Amino acid sequence: MVELQILNKILKDKNTSLLDLNDITRDYFNQYQEEYDYIMEHKQEYGNVPDLETFITKFQDFDVVNVSESTEYLVNTFREEYLYSQAVPVLTKMAELLQTDAYSAVDYLKAKLPELKIDGAVKGTDIISQAKERLEEWKETKDNQDTHFIASGFEEIDADLGGWHKGEELVVLFARAGQGKSWVLIKMLEHAWKVYHAKVGLLEPEMSANKTGYRFDTVHQHISSQALYRGEDVQGYDKYIKRLTNEGVPFYVAHPRHFQKKVTVSKLKSWCESNKLDILAIDGISYLQDERGKRGDNKTTQLTNISEDLMQLSIDLKIPVLVVVQSNREGVHNEDLQLDNIRDSDGIAYNASIVLSIQQKEEGLQIQDVKARNSKVGIKWVYAWDTDKGTFDYIPQPAKGKEDEEKSEDLRRRYHDKESEEY
Fold first, then answer.
1. Which pLDDT tens digit goes with each residue over 208-244?
2. DSSP one-letter string for 127-188
3. CA pair distance 64, 5, nearest whole angstrom
4. pTM of the entire predicted model
5. CA distances in angstroms from 414 to 52, 112, 155, 193, 251, listed in the order given
6. Residues in CB range of 322: below 8 A, 6 or more apart
7. Within a 10 A sphere around the Cβ of 306, how many other Cβ atoms?
8. Sign of the four-CA dihedral 135, 138, 166, 375
9. What is the end-to-end Cα distance of the chain in Å, rounded?
């Protein structure tokens, strides 16, 4: 009955805003799809909803009824009926899966839940009448910086970007293979753990927890990376490990096998919630699977969906999310990497709040912000990176003065002396 009521209201008002503003599409109509098509096609071709007389000439058996119900009632009732029709096959399929594999059943339901969610009518936020809300948010942020931001661990980068916001922050680190992006990520996470006592969660698909732990030890205590990997003598390592285990703040490292080799954003969100993580990092977005994808979707579409879902995770849980991404082959030919050098997806750059490129340059390890929603874009920071000791010494730019120029030259010299292959 509600389908009939809605079509009658549209014909009477000669306006389809009821459908447009509430995202009601052809799929909602079961009994009157042909009538819906006629109205929409007429509007598209002639610029208006057909007169009732014109409509009745085409559909002589159509019942013309008087509609006195409010738009809100009609929309809510229509949505409820549509949600029911969509939910029944999903729950039926889930019941079938529960008979053989409960994990698959839950994963299936999680993947389908976003499709079953129906939002209300679009109203938006009145930034005039609700201006006091942002005033309070600004005051809270101003008075409690530490509760709203986590520093990156690179002092110079933090001075320009302000660190990672705890919520609505998707940071993308991208580079070609072997440029040091995973080391930079560990450095950032170690700083959050050490200074903010943040509970860290790192999805590390390519290295074991112990190998990742070695990198942490190198960055945290500047223990020789080479010695740890080769099993060489490290004086005081046992005492350091004993002190470390008494810290009481966890740093979790997970592998895809911990997620039944199917890592999704929903599973990562559950992981964050169950361990009360303060920051989430993913060393390789390509290892995630798209929960919203459809058969035939290309890699670009899948990664766009995943990055969008990761940003929503950050918003929902109020934690920053850091993601490592590979550069495409074209990036090799560019002096400086750009957004279009992110492999497989423009959507990753679109959804990210901050994008940092990482490149090995003659003068040192260069980090550049190629996207920053709230800061200047194009800033470059160069560091003398000692891969064996896990140190990152800032190299000031020569243009800043003679004293800085001398320091720059000294650091460059040290960088080249210490430079070695990434372990």
1. 999 999 999 999 999 999 999 999 999 999 999 999 9
2. TTTTHHHHHHHHHHHHH-HHHHEE--S-HHHHHHH--EESSS-EEEEEE-TTSSHHHHHHHH
3. 9
4. 0.68
5. 83, 55, 20, 28, 32
6. 164, 171, 173, 185, 188, 189, 279, 280, 281, 282
7. 27
8. positive
9. 68
Q: How many helices (H) and strands (E) does the chain have?
A: 17, 11
Identify the CA nearest to 69 among candidates 145, 25, 18. 18
Q: What share of the chain is helix, strand, coil (3-state, %, to 5)?
A: 50, 15, 35
What token pair was written down for 220?
Answer: 């945290």
Question: Using CA atoms in the order 175, 179, 182, 188, what is the torsion angle rounded to 10 degrees?
Answer: -90
32 three-state secondary structure? coil
Read off the amino acid at residue 35: E
Would you say residue 115 has pLDDT above 80?
Answer: no
Residue 396 pLDDT grade (very low, low, confident, very high; cuts 50, 70, 90): confident
Residue ranges of alpha helices (H) inside 250-318 are: 265-275, 299-317
Specify whether the CB–CB gap between 228 and 217 falls below 8 A: yes
150 within 8 A of 306, measured Cβ to Cβ: no
Residue 387: Cβ within 10 Å count: 18
Q: Select the more confidently predicted residue: 181 or 27.
A: 181
Q: Are 68 and 90 in contact (CB under 8 A)?
A: no
**Best-predicted range by mean pLDDT among 56-60, 319-323, 394-398?**
319-323
In 3D, which of 219, 223, 227, 213 has the Cα closest to residue 184?
Answer: 219
Token pair recorded at residue 166: 């705890």
| Rounded Cα–Cα distance for residues 7 and 35 (Å) | 8
Q: What are phi and psi of 102, to 5 degrees?
A: -65, -35
Token digits for 33?
């799809």
